[in-house]
Backbone:
């Protein structure tokens, strides 16, 4: 059974950090484009970051470039999103997902598997 389980969300003050984790089961993460997208109330889905299966190259949305880092631990079949210098506009539910597309700006348009999401709230 394919499953993605996110964790690590929470409430943090502006400028703070969080590390999200996404544990996969039922398939091997390293064979897929894997990434994080977020959904805030009243806003469109945003593909935050993804990691290529072929060469582990990464994509970051302009809104998070320089602040977020995506990584993958193949031994643990887990992908991470390190989020630093968080801003109130980063508040959203964050989902990890596999994509049928190559890692790039449109990776999140066609997703195959996704988790239940984890809430991130940035507020003072």
Residues:
């Amino acid at each position: 059974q394919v499953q993605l389980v996110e964790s690590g969300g929470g409430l943090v003050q502006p400028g703070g950090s969080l590390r999200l984790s996404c544990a996969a089961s039922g398939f091997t993460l390293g064979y897929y484009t894997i990434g994080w997208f977020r959904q805030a109330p009243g806003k469109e889905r945003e593909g935050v970051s993804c990691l290529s299966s072929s060469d582990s190259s990464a994509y970051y949305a302009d809104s998070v470039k320089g602040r977020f880092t995506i990584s993958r631990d193949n031994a643990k079949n887990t992908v991470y999103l390190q989020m630093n210098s968080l801003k109130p506009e980063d508040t959203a539910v964050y989902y990890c997902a596999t994509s049928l597309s190559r890692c790039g700006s449109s990776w999140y348009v066609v997703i195959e598997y996704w988790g239940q999401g984890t809430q991130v709230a940035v507020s003072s």
Notes: The chain has no helices and eleven strands. The mean pLDDT is 95.
